[in-house]
Every structure is written in structure tokens, then in C-alpha cells.
Amino acid sequence: MTWPADTSGKALSALRCEPEDEPAYLWTGEFADPVLEDNYLRASWDEIHSRLGVVLIAVYVFTSWMVFDFIALGFSWSSFALSAGRLVALGAILLALKFFRTPDDRRSFMFCAILTQALVAIISPLSLMLGEVDFAAALLSIVVILFAFYIGVPTRLTANLALSSALCIGFVAVTPSLGEVSALTMLEVCVLFAVVNAIGVEMVRAANRLRRNGFTTLLRQQELYDELKREVGVRQEAEQAVRATEESFQSIFYAAPLPISLIDPATFRVMQANMAALQLFDVEDEDVTGLDVRQLFQENDLPARLDRLVLKGRAGSPVELGMKRMDGEPIHVLVSAATVHFQGRRAVLLGLQDVTARRREAEALRDARDQATAASRSKSEFLANMSHELRTPLNAIIGFSEALERELFGPVGNPRYREYAEDIHNSGVHLLSLINDILDLSKIEAGHFKLHEDETDLDHVVESAVRIVRHRAQQANIDLACSLPDPPLVVVADERALKQVLINLVSNAVKFSPDGGEISISGELASEHLRISVTDRGCGISEEDIPRALTPFTQLDGSLSRQHEGTGLGLPLAKHLTELHGGVLTIESELGQGTTVHIELPLSRVVNRDKPKGVVAY
């Protein structure tokens, strides 16, 4: 019995699915599992094909019987019909044997075999009746055909039983035409047919069961053979892998660039070390074997530390330990450990990495960072103190100059004194604004700036900022246009801080816009944030200069003859105040095209988040 390469695998899978040792069978002796039955039929296809070939001899005899039909019936329609049926039966079995040779043609093959059986079952009783054959000879021929059905034809038992029963019923139906037969004889014939069919069914059931038992036995033997073959192959591969690993370990061990050593866990003496470890220990090759590593490490609980490293395995991180070379020089190393078997003994594999230089660099960086932090703190404290010291006299200067400018206590006489007072007042206000920016920035950097948040109307904040900057814009012949959502949005924010952000942005836009230009302030409510944008058509900023523009005290035009005044605090202060509100300040700009600065505040700061119905412009 043979089967295709993919058949045994499916059959074995079907066998493994059976809960018991033996697979389940139908009453016909066939497998209950359709997959297993299909694989059996494929595997035993040659036998099935050969059995039908044996039946071909009987079909030849059946076909040649048309000679006796001709002798008995002569040239008649009955003789012609019986001969045609016999020839069709012969053609069907020849078609099955000659053209349907593979298991994939099993359905067509079985159909031809069943067609042959059906024609035999129909023609045989009719031939006996029309030829008026002797009752005993007719009965004998029917019994022979029944045994030929059960023993020779390889169709399924259910089809065989149905066609055999049809043959018996057909014979019983034509029996009265074969001669005088008593009722007792008819009863005996029926019992005989029942016995013959029962014997045939049991024979086929037993044969089916035996054949399939043999098939399952072969499958299990094949499975055992494959399993044994796999185990032998795995064992051979494992042995080869072990040999290759042992050879590779020695090569990798000595060629590794990092220091590696094997330690006896019982005595902590070196069993083997590579060249990098010898250089790290500052010891010769002949002196390293037997060296106690505890005298190299500056750790009192080295055994416990190594045990913890081994227990952590791959999940643990290397541990930094202090170490002393043989010449007494202290160093720092990262140590990792793992348990291995070396020359039949348990050993600890130590991996070492010299991090002395890195540790010194880290210490130097830490010192430099501390110094920079202290310097930055000192700078912030100095700026805050100086701002407070300067703001007090400036308030007096601004107040007195304003009194002189408005002539609160009477005329000052010469009009030029009023002009001087106005200049003093403007300069003082400008200087006070600068000091306030420095003080706010110092508070923010020191973490002392606190927001006083409350619900405020966004339109009111924008109008207040525009009102403050509008006079300067009118002097430069610049139009200010606002476009905000309608109905007005209510936001939770520090009104003064948000106004300061807008004043700084709009002032910057005015400063860098040409005469006759236009600046737009717009707001829109997006799905995740509230965006306020300030857009000008000024000189613009190159992409690489945008980070510098957000750095405090930085002027993009840093020459002594720069065209625009300022201290470089407007954008950095606006950025910090925006971030204190949980927002983001971004800049989009292109040289010669203008600049747009976006303030994006979290949507959670908007009280009325309904979609705006329109836009209010002013």
C-alpha cells in the first residue's frame, strides 16, 4: 500500500484527533472520519483498481451471454435491448479501467462501476425470464452474481447492498415465469437471498475493517519512523552544535575585544582569561590562572554581588564596581555575569568593561552643569534685583516728566521744555517696559512666575492689545485688521499675560512691516486647540534663524547699525507665557514674504466650545 507524499501527513493528523487508541468506524467497516477515509482510498487506489480489473473477466462472460439471448429470443427487440445493455455494462467498466486511473478520478471510476452493477442487476433477471431458463439454474446464476458483487466489485457497501437487494427482488419478481414454484419454495428462496446478502455484508465489513486496520497500522509505523528519524536528526544536530559551540567559544573568547574571564564560583579563582582581560588586570598569561579576583575588586561583598548578577541573568543590567589593577591603579568597570559549563565544570563568565574615562567625563560634565546652573541662577537673581532697583527711580522720572509735559502745576514757559519732558517721559516708559520684560523673563526662568487665571473675553483681550499698539501702527501708516470667531469666545487665562503676548507679537509685526503695510490678527477654533495668528507682510525670517529669534537677548540684525530697535525679549517672553498656559508658539516665515506667528492654546481653556457661526472683523 502506497500513498502520495502529502497523504500520510493528513491521515496522521486525523488519527491524532481520535480520542481513543483505535479510530471510529461506521457500520460498513469504513472510517467515520471522512478525511481518514479519503486518505485510505487514495492510499489503496491500486488495489481498488486491480479488483475491478478482476471483475472485468466476469463482465466479459456476462456480455458474451447475449449469444444465448439470441438463441433463445432470435432477432427481436428484446434480444436487441438485452444485448445493448450488456454492451453498455462492458463499456462502462472498460471506461473506468482505461481512463479513470488516478485517485482524483475516484468519483467517475465509482460511477462507472455502479452503472455496471446496476445494468447487471437489471438485465440478469430479465434475461432469465425472457429466455425461460430453468428455475434451479437461474437461482444458481443469481447467487453467483451476488457473491461476485460482494467479493469483487470495489464499490461502497451501501451501494453494493442496495444493488444486490434490487437483484434479489428482481429475481423474485420474475420467478413465476420460470415455472411452477410453490409458496414454500418462494419463501426458501427469499431466506436464501437474505442469508447470502447477510454473508456478503459481513464479509465486506470484515474485509473493510481488516484493510483499514492495516492502513492505520502502517500509518502509525510511519509516524514512529518519522519521529525516530526526527529525534535522531535532532540529536545529531545537537551534537554537532555542541562541538561547533565549544570550538567557537574558544575562538570568540580569546578574540573578544572586551575583557572576559571564567571564574570558579567556589574559590573565585580565574580559570581562563582572554587577552583584553589580561591587559585590564595588568597581569601576564602564565600568572592569571589561579588568581583570586577578590583581591582585584574593591568590594567586601563581591560573592553576594556576583550571585545577584547571575540570578538576574539577561534581565539584569551590568553593575559598576570599583577595581584595582595589579599595579595599584584604581579603575571602574561594568561587570556582567552568567553561569556556564566549562570543561565539565560549573563556572561564572565575567564580562568587564572599563568605564573609568567615561566616569571621569560624567563627573566633569556634572561639575560643569552645576556651575552653569549656579551662573544662570545668579544671572536671574541679578536681573531681578537690578530690575527692582531701576524701576523705583524710573517711576519717579516718568511721573515727574508726565507732570511737566501736561503742565499740571502751571506753564513751564519755553515750549521746548515740554518737548524735552515728553522725550524724557517716552524714554522712561520704554525703559520701564524693557525692565518689566526682563523681570518677567527672570521670574519665568526661576519658576516664580504665577498665572492669575480667570474667564475672560478673547475679543476684549485682542482689542486691548490692538488699542495699545494702534498709535505706533498709525505713525507707520500700517493698518491693523482683526478677524475673530462669532459669537465671541470666552477663555480661561491670565488676561495680563495673554495681552502681553499679543502686544509683543503685534509690536514686532509693526516694527518689521513696511510703510503702508497691513497686519492681521485672526482666531479660529480647531478640533484640538484655539489658534490665534498674527500675520505681517514684512521682511520675514529665514528658517535657520527662527530658533535664534526665540532666544532671549538675541537680535537677528546684530550690527551696531541695525535698522530696528529692540532687546530681543518680545518673542522669547511671548513663547514662555504661551507655554505657561499649556500652549505652543510657532513661527512660519519666508524671507521677503512676511511672517505668521501662531499661538495654539489647549481646547480645554475655551469655555464656550460650540462651533462658531461666523467671523467678526474690525
Physical arrangement of strands within the biggest beta sheet: 11-12-10-9-7-13
Query: Count of helices?
Result: 18
Largest sheet: 6 strands, mixed
Radius of gyration of CA atoms, rounded to a whole number = 53 Å
In what range is the share of β-strand residues? 5-15%
Distance N terminus to C terminus?
Answer: 97 Å
Helix proportion of residues, in percent? 55-70%
Kindly report the average pLDDT value. Answer: 78
Spans of at least 5 consecutive residues with low confidence: 16-20, 558-564
* Overall 3D form: elongated
Count the beta strands.
13
Q: What number of structural domains do the residues give?
A: 4
Classify the secondary structure makeup into a structural class. Answer: alpha+beta
SSE map:
Elements: H1 7-16, H2 34-43, H3 45-64, H4 66-73, H5 77-99, H6 106-130, H7 135-151, H8 157-174, H9 183-255, E1 260-263, E2 270-273, H10 275-281, H11 285-288, H12 302-312, E3 319-324, E4 330-342, E5 345-354, H13 356-406, H14 415-446, E6 454-457, H15 458-475, E7 479-486, E8 490-493, H16 495-511, E9 518-525, E10 529-536, H17 546-549, H18 570-580, E11 584-590, E12 594-602, E13 614-617
Parallel strand pairs: 7-9
Antiparallel strand pairs: 1-2, 1-5, 3-4, 4-5, 6-8, 7-13, 9-10, 10-12, 11-12
Helix pairs in contact: 1-2, 1-9, 3-5, 4-5, 5-6, 6-8, 7-8, 7-9, 8-9, 13-14, 14-18, 15-16, 16-18
